[in-house]
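User: Structure please.
Assistant: Input sequence and predicted structure:
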Amino acid sequence: MQKLKKFTRKELEGFSKEQFIELVLLLQDRIEQFEDRLSKLEKDSSNSSKPPSSDNKPNKDLNLREKSGKSSGGQKGHPGFTRNLVDNPDKIIQHSPEACKCCGKALCNIKGSLKGRRQVVDIPPIKAEVTEHQQIEKTCPCGHKNIGRFPDEVRAPVQFGPYFQSLILYLSVRHHIPYNRVAEIMEEILGEKISERTIENILELANKRAGPLYRLIKKRLKDSKCVGSDETGTRVNGVNFFLWIWQNMFYSFFAVDKKRSYKVIQKYFGEDFKGTLVHDCFGAQNKTNAKNHQLCHAHLLRDLKYCIQEKSSLWAYEVTILLLSSQKIRPFIWERGFDKKLREKTIKTFEKRLDKLLTREVAGEETIRLQKRIKKHKDKILFFMTTKNVPPDNNGSERAIRNAKIHKKISGGFRNELAAQRYAILMSIIDTAKKQGLKMFDACQRLFSGSLTFAHARQ
């Protein structure tokens, strides 16, 4: 931006009327340029696709949810939860009176009756159990010496069992606890001192066991009707990498790569997906070869909110109403028994309203840019209305990929690329187990024992 010349008072007094008008117009144009530049600096996670971590100031309105009008906390009529007494406690301690408070006579030989019960739930001191396997040799009368066989899973003089290994996997991957703290937990609580190298060896063993399941998850996703995808930054040995996710309500497939381009999609997800891909407007996602695409409404609504807040855009408000209305009406037009022709007519009405909004003239750099983007991807905006299986947003992917941010905050990233790739594989297994209704710690145990399977869920 070229610097404007500063005039002295004497120079201004010598200006003609036409020169003053020209100067005022120039100053108005310059003010608009500064306002546009300032508005860009005021973007945050509530009105754009910027992550919350980039916000420069606290913002009490970080989402697009409408206020319900209800007070916070449990609502009236909501069933409470009270822990009930168990029928078969592990230990019973009876408290009987030893003598009569009236006459002082001993009561030890008098049979009493149960008057009340109270229970305390606690954890006994935890100690690792050591099981010794002994190999026995027996000599047959014929003279042949016979030696017993160790179990196939017992291969070293001293090793950790599947429950111990599962706990390390669960703490490290599911809860993102750094190696040194996992080692501290094992020593403080179980009394077993282990090294960080041992933890890494256990995770590597889990990684090998998880390989076939990881490939199965990818296959099941590619065979499904709808998949959401997203990516976010992570740190590997101090360098920026990206954690990618492809997921639906039954499966999660994570991958880590140093690139954020279409080549990553080709490498990990492929180019033969026959379903619908739900995503934001990132170029690599738009380029993915899929039968259909649905752009995430949540991202669009944040950008529209910015145009409404900063530019007072009536057009952005009307598009917002259109998107929110389409989300609310979709469940009704796909109810059982709903007239097919009326459903098609309803969808056409929304598409015509969108077409009309996209032909309207708008003002403001951000609003014009957003209108062009929506116009370019018009067929991806309301596609979800044509089927009951495609969501209007990509919130499922954002929830799944939030693990990367949690891991970064707690552990600070990954030591090397192999550790990051291992995390992606193991997180795919654990997140998929959670989606399929399995207890995640049980899934870790079954992974080590080789008995973990996933149901073939179809959308």
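The two ends are 54 Å apart (CA to CA).
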